[in-house]
User: Fold this.
Amino acid sequence: MSATQKDSARDGLEGVVVAETRLSEVDGLKGRLIIAGHDVEELAGRIPFEAACWLLAHGKLPSSAQIDEVQRALGAARANAFQNLPRIGDALRMGNDMEALRASTAHLSQGDSGAVDQSTELIAATAVFAAARTRTRAGKSPLAPDPTLEHAADYLRMALEHRPAKAAVDALNTYLVTVVDHGMNASTFAARVVASTSSDMVSAVVAAIGALKGPLHGGAPGPVLDMLQAIDSPSRARSWLEAELGKGHRIMGMGHRVYRVRDPRAAVLEKAIEQLSKAGLATERLTLARAVEKEAERLLQERHPERALRANVEFYTAVLLDAIGLPGTAFTPTFAVGRVAGWCAHYLEQQKAGRLIRPASRYIGPRPSERP
Ligand code: COA
Assistant:
């Protein structure tokens, strides 16, 4: 294939607009993320996850009564999802944590939980299944939800057993709101492709979970934590990173397909970690992470002067989720706990827009006449 042909095939669909959406916009040059009319900085740290779910579903922020309404609906749906656990038991023990989440979710049929709407059912089930897997992995039985708690608090309680500190719940709410939606990322696109075939919402979410699992998308924060643990001290950052790059490895948590500046979500999460530090959590890790980020940025700049490779959301996700007590294996499932609200909203939007997504490919194999 010639260079021009390859270019017109748009490897990775970079820059190709595949849908119109009212849900979010990513401006990669300015480093700006708008979620349903609000800058991410206006939302994260200021509203609970319930309000972000409402915002995506209704296009405007809820009143406090409406937040309570979402909290009650999610609480009831979590209780119902928990009833499904005996049925999906083996799936929870599968391979890694994202495989377990994918398999558990695949056991659902729409309407299983009796939740008032499909999105609520899936948002609730994702938290219940992810937390149950964290417990199962630790050799413990899943904990039943407490429907009176807000979603973030109950997710942490179900995963960790103890009732979490307010600072931890606030940090998790900030995280879930920050990642709730992000333009046409790979998992959202996967969900929209499934939606466009008029398939069901469970299938769309299962496809999205599969896409999120990959280390180039949502699978990076676990490896970021491994990296920080291996580096251990700011003074070791440079030599460790140089050795990784020397082996041809990518530095996890750095670089982005769309952002040509620092991912704005990295700054939002870094601020949330500062709050956690004030509550006595994460202090040393934050200092280390900042040093590693600075060094990684410098080394990547030397190697790729043509392209800004800066910290992405996953870099500080690892620090935040670790500080609130979640194990590294639960990081990507926790990403799904937030992003599932975006997937469901995109599913509904795509269904309304209604056209089958069916792109073209260019055949580069032999023609029958050219076959050897
Ligand atoms: N570490 C080292 N090199 C990197 C890099 C990283 N994190 N990210 C990109 N590069 C390099 C690539 O190797 C490539 O170099 P080459 O031209 O010599 O082959 C160049 O930068 C361009 O990268 P490209 O693969 O075109 O970028 P992309 O838009 O396809 O990829 C990511 C974007 C996010 C997949 C990529 O930056 C990455 O793999 N980051 C690490 C994983 C991660 O943090 N994922 C979470 C994303 S939110």
